[in-house]
């Protein structure tokens, strides 16, 4: 797939086929992302891919916590507020996603069920967790972000879909416990990955982007 085409037509996927992703495909996806840039070639990224029985065990654990409305204890807390323009984009995006699913604003049960689908990884056969060593500074977040983008585009080029999910970092201690990961590795975010179910209504929705003049200045 042409890079410019991938940048243009990539989208978040929130419904997947049950078809498993083979190990060689997973390894190829991540190997293609290894050329991502990083400060002084530090390569601070740390990724864990979970499939099969371990994936199900992790889903069960996270789903139970979320269903019980357990307080989030993220290693990197969510922002407490947004600038007005940014907040407007997030609200519009959320509303249009529910519209794509024909879920009314006052349908609390349906909205709750859709929220909990995050913790079933939208039925994707793979889930990826991105970690950062606690001894790294926030500077490395930029490098890891570029690596994550490379993984997303590489997966897209391999015919897979992805969805980056901040919600999967709500319970980092549970993730570390199930995956036997030391507390020194701080959880940044999770990502569902698999072959898209393009017939699902939610995958008919594509989020909007502001025009260039909203954020680009050229001198």
Question: How is the largest sheet built, in terms of strand order?
Answer: 1-2-4-3
User: Which architecture would the CATH scheme give at its second level?
Assistant: 3-Layer(aba) Sandwich
Give the rounded overall mean pLDDT.
95
CATH superfamily: NADH Oxidase
- Taking all Cα atoms into account, the compactness measure Rg is 18 Å
| Helix content class | 25-40%
- Shape designation: globular
**Element-level helix/strand string:** HHEHHHEHEHE
State the end-to-end distance.
33 Å
Number of helices: 7
- Into how many domains do the coordinates divide? 1
Q: Sketch the major β-sheet.
A: 4 strands, antiparallel
Which CATH top level class fits?
Alpha Beta
The percentage of residues in β strands lies in 5-15%
Strands, count? 4
Structural class: alpha+beta
What low-confidence regions span 5 or more consecutive residues with pLDDT below 50? none
What would the CATH topology be?
Answer: NADH Oxidase
Description:
The protein is α+β, with helices and mostly antiparallel strands. The chain has a single domain, classed as NADH Oxidase. The protein is built from 7 helices and 4 strands; from the N terminus they run ααβαααβαβαβ. The chain has a 4-stranded antiparallel beta sheet. α3 runs antiparallel to α7. The mean pLDDT is 95.
Spell out the key features of this protein:
single chain, alpha+beta, four-stranded antiparallel beta sheet, 7 helices, 219 residues, 4 strands, 39% helix
């Amino acid at each position: 797939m042409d890079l410019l085409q991938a940048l243009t037509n990539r989208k978040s996927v929130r419904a997947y086929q049950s078809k498993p992703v083979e190990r060689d495909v997973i390894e190829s996806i991540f190997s293609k992302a290894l050329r991502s840039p990083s400060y002084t070639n530090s390569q601070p990224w740390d990724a864990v891919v979970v499939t099969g029985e371990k994936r199900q065990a992790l889903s069960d654990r996270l789903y139970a916590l979320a269903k019980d409305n357990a307080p989030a204890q993220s290693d990197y807390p969510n922002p407490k507020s947004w600038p007005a323009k940014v907040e407007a984009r997030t609200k519009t995006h959320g509303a249009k996603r529910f519209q794509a699913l024909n879920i009314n604003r006052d349908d609390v049960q349906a909205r709750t069920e859709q929220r909990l689908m995050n913790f079933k990884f939208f039925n994707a056969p793979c889930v990826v967790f991105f970690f950062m060593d606690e001894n790294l500074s926030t500077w490395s977040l930029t490098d890891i972000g570029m690596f994550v983008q490379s993984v997303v585009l590489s997966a897209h080029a391999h015919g897979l879909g992805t969805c980056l999910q901040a919600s999967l970092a709500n319970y980092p201690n549970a993730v570390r416990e199930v995956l036997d990961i030391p507390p020194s590795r701080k959880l940044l975010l999770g990502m569902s990955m698999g072959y898209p179910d393009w017939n699902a209504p939610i995958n008919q929705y594509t989020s909007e982007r502001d025009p260039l003049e909203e954020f680009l200045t050229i001198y």
